[in-house]
């Protein structure tokens, strides 16, 4: 059965970007494929973080996964740092990939600009570790947002290079070890920031709505989205706060409301306070069942503990199987 792998960094609570870009894809795939879904805590420490809250963030994301509908009977849940084979494979793969390609990646350049005083080796290494994450399980499909496409390309290059250098243990070629993973696309592969600039991200303040936000918080966050005078008219803008609001209406399936406000925009009669109220209700309606399920999980910590323990055992076995093959092919066994 085809393997699927996806991970979310433990840098804060899940937001609508993670939900539409990644979690919706995970939910769509868990019934049909052999899926491994991970909290990638090793990736979380490449940008400034608080060690004292890291473990809590990890657990909260596992709970978010479960509340969103990931079912441990259908998929394997993993905490990346608990499976040391990730870092072992990442190091081995790093020896066959050029530094210059990593330095050119837009994601690396963005993070460098965002944290000029925190440009570390781990940040540069991020795509190599991510390639190892997926290849460790021989993942073929990766449900992630469009922001991750450059990393998918790196992954495929590494898989290709490994296969050509070490494909067969004795001849160095012939059989392929790793598949070339493809991104599984969702309708919400790019959720724009509430600030109107760039993508919604956990590490950009004011950019996101968390899945745990209540009605009042959603209202407040949407009220802060920058708009215009409402008298511009013509076609809807492609970027900025107004564009973000319209994208979100579409993602929350408010098609009729979308058309109404689009017409209002054209006719210069749009009232953003009205639009924001409609959107607030739409967001809250979708998040309410998630929030209720989350409460029941918080009341049952031993269930969460056992789900984490089971996931770790299953993943460890799969990971070790790949590593045995890799060690042998690279000359370590
Ligand atoms: P963040 O940037 O918020 O820290 P992560 O890097 O942990 O998010 O990404 C977790 C997953 O969520 C990835 O699959 C990523 O592609 C997806 N994702 C993150 N932000 C968005 C967004 N704004 N739109 C769509 N998908 C997103």
SSE topology string:
EHEHHEHHHHEHEHHHHH
Q: Helix amount, in percent?
A: 40-55%
The CATH topology label of the largest domain is Rossmann fold
CATH superfamily of the largest domain: HUPs
Query: Can you tell me the residue ranges where pLDDT is under 50 for at least 5 consecutive residues?
Result: none
Q: Structural class, please?
A: mainly alpha
Gross geometry? globular
Q: Which value, in Å, is the CA radius of gyration?
A: 21 Å
Q: Spatial order of the strands in the main sheet?
A: 1-2-3
Tell me the span between the first and last alpha carbons.
28 Å
Average pLDDT, all residues = 95
Q: Tell me the name of the CATH class of the largest domain.
A: Alpha Beta
Describe this structure in words.
This protein has 333 residues and is mainly alpha-helical. It folds into two domains: 3-190 and 301-330, Rossmann fold, CATH 3.40.50; 215-295, Tyrosyl-Transfer RNA Synthetase (Orthogonal Bundle), CATH 1.10.240. It is 55% helix and 8% strand. The protein has 13 helices and five strands. The protein has helices spanning 16-29, 41-44, 51-68, 85-94, 99-103, 106-114, 121-136, 149-166, 215-223, 241-251, 255-266, 272-298, 301-329, and strands at residues 3-9, 34-40, 75-79, 141-143, 182-184. The strands form two sheets. It has a three-stranded parallel β-sheet. Strands 4-5 form a two-stranded parallel ribbon. Helix 7 crosses helix 8. The protein is globular. The structure holds adenosine-5'-diphosphate (ADP). Adenosine-5'-diphosphate binds next to strand 1 and helix 1.
């Amino acid at each position: 059965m085809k393997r699927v792998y996806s991970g979310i960094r433990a840098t804060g609570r899940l937001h609508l970007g993670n939900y539409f870009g990644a979690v919706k894809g995970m939910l769509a795939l868990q019934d049909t494929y052999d899926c491994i879904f991970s909290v990638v805590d090793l990736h979380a420490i490449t940008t400034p973080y608080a060690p004292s809250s890291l473990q809590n963030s990890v657990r909260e994301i596992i709970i978010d996964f479960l509340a969103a509908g990931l079912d441990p009977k259908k998929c394997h849940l993993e905490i990346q740092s608990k499976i040391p084979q990730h870092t072992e494979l990442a190091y081995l793969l790093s020896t066959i990939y050029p530094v210059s390609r990593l330095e050119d990646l837009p994601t690396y350049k963005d993070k460098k600009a965002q944290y000029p005083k925190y440009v570390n080796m781990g940040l540069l290494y991020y795509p190599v570790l991510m390639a190892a994450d997926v290849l460790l399980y021989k993942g073929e499909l990766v449900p992630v947002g469009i922001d991750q496409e450059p990393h998918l390309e790196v992954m495929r290059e590494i898989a290709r290079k490994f296969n050509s250098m070490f494909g067969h243990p004795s001849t160095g070629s012939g059989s392929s070890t790793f598949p070339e993973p493809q991104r599984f696309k969702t309708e919400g592969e790019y959720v724009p920031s509430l600030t109107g600039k760039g993508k919604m991200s956990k590490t950009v303040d004011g950019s996101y709505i968390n899945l745990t936000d209540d009605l009042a918080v959603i209202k407040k966050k949407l009220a802060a989205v920058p708009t215009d005078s409402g008298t511009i008219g013509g076609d809807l803008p492609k970027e900025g706060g107004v564009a973000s609001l319209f994208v979100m209406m579409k993602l929350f399936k408010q098609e009729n409301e979308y058309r109404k406000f689009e017409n209002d925009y054209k006719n210069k009669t749009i009232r953003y306070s009205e639009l924001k109220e409609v959107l607030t209700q739409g967001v809250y309606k979708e998040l309410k069942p998630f929030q209720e399920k989350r409460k029941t999980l918080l009341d049952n910590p031993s269930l969460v503990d056992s789900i984490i323990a089971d996931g770790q055992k299953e993943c460890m076995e799969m990971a070790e199987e790949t590593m045995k093959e890799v060690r042998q092919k690279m000359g370590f066994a």
